[in-house]
């Protein structure tokens, strides 16, 4: 309940919760005191339907009243023990997050014996182990396929894991590092550093020339000198730098779209991409198995 945006909502929820219980109690008391006028000795109210259906004036069964009272008492104890009254956390300190973390910890502990044998195996061996691959596939499908695709070939903005083009390196250790801590890739807007819009277009054509793509040779020649503004990250030859995650511009692999227009947009606007860290969800052994599965996409052919 810590995500309320104002002090009104905790009070509103508390009033609704306790007011509903109080209303039910009051209605029960009122119903127990109302006396309906009856006629005769059969305790009916003289209301008759279909010729012989008569409305009786019998009191509520005691067992029903008792159950109703117990329900009210249970509701009060529940609201005292668990979150339910606005920002009141409850005497037991229960939260859905805490229960989830406890269940994950219990599941991981139960799986420790299975993962223990994988933890001591090399990535190259794990990538060929049928049992480890099956586990890695399930982890990948449940957590990674949403971005990288079920075939791991990615899409615009999400890297293809089946080729050998790695922004931060494709060694087993680097893949584990990426999964564990996540990555934040940032290219700042470079238009001001490059120069005029014409300079930006010239640099875009020079970049296209590095990968053998279709380009304007005249503009590419003019853009070569201006590319110096980009060389600090991508290198003087445009081959990138895995230490900082800068892209190789010579391999004709384009994460955010190919062609002059796409490159001009990146120079003008820059780009920030983020892969989340998984260290809080997976154990080191699970990350080891997943990294081996991912490594196998481009190395088990």
TrEMBL record:
CC cofactor note: Binds 2 heme C groups per subunit.
Pathway(s): Energy metabolism; oxidative phosphorylation
A cellular component term, taken from the record's GO annotations: plasma membrane
Subunit structure: Component of the cbb3-type cytochrome c oxidase.
Function in brief: C-type cytochrome. Part of the cbb3-type cytochrome c oxidase complex.
One term of GO molecular function: oxidoreductase activity
PROSITE patterns: CYTC
Segments passing through the bilayer: 6-30, 63-82
An annotated GO BP: oxidative phosphorylation
Occurrences of domain Cytochrome c (ranges): 131-211, 218-298
Protein name listed in UniProt: Cbb3-type cytochrome c oxidase subunit
Residues engaged in binding heme c 2: 187, 230, 233-234
InterPro entries with a match to the protein in the record: CcoP_N, CcoP_N_sf, Cyt_c-like_dom, Cyt_c-like_dom_sf, Cyt_C_IC, Cyt_c_oxidase_cbb3_su3, Cytochrome_c_Oxidase_Subunit
Family: Belongs to the CcoP / FixP family.
Keywords, ordered alphabetically: Cell inner membrane, Cell membrane, Electron transport, Heme, Hydrogen ion transport, Ion transport, Iron, Membrane, Metal-binding, Oxidoreductase, Repeat, Respiratory chain, Transmembrane, Transmembrane helix, Transport
Subcellular location: Cell inner membrane
UniProt superkingdom: Bacteria
Cofactor: heme c
Positions that bind heme c 1: 144, 147-148, 275
């Amino acid at each position: 309940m810590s995500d309320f945006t104002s002090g009104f909502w905790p009070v509103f929820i508390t009033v609704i919760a306790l007011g509903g219980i109080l209303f039910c109690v009051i209605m029960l008391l009122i119903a127990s005191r109302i006396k309906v006028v009856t006629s005769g000795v059969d305790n009916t109210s003289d209301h008759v339907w279909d010729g012989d259906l008569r409305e009786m004036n019998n009191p509520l069964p005691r067992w029903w009243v008792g159950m109703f009272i117990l329900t009210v008492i249970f509701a009060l104890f529940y609201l005292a023990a668990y979150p339910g009254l606005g920002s009141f956390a409850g005497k037991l300190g229960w939260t859905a997050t805490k229960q989830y973390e406890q269940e994950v910890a219990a599941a991981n502990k139960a799986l420790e014996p299975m993962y223990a044998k994988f933890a001591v195996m090399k990535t190259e061996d794990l990538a060929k182990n049928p049992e480890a691959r099956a586990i890695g596939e399930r982890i990948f499908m449940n957590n990674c396929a949403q971005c990288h695709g079920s075939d791991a070939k990615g899409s615009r903005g999400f890297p293809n894991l089946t080729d050998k083009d790695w922004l931060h390196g494709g060694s087993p250790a680097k893949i584990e590092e990426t999964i564990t801590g996540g990555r934040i890739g940032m290219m700042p807007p470079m238009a001001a550093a490059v120069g005029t819009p014409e300079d930006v277009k010239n640099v875009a054509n020079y970049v296209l020339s590095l990968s053998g793509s279709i380009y304007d040779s005249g503009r590419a020649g003019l853009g070569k000198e201006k590319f110096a503004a980009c060389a600090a990250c991508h290198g003087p030859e445009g081959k990138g730098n895995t230490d900082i995650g800068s892209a190789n511009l010579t391999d004709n692999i384009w994460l955010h779209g190919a062609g002059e227009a796409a490159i001009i947009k990146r120079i003008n606007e820059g780009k920030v991409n983020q892969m989340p860290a998984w260290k809080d969800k997976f154990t080191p052994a699970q990350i080891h198995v997943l990294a081996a599965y991912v490594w196998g996409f481009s190395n088990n052919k």
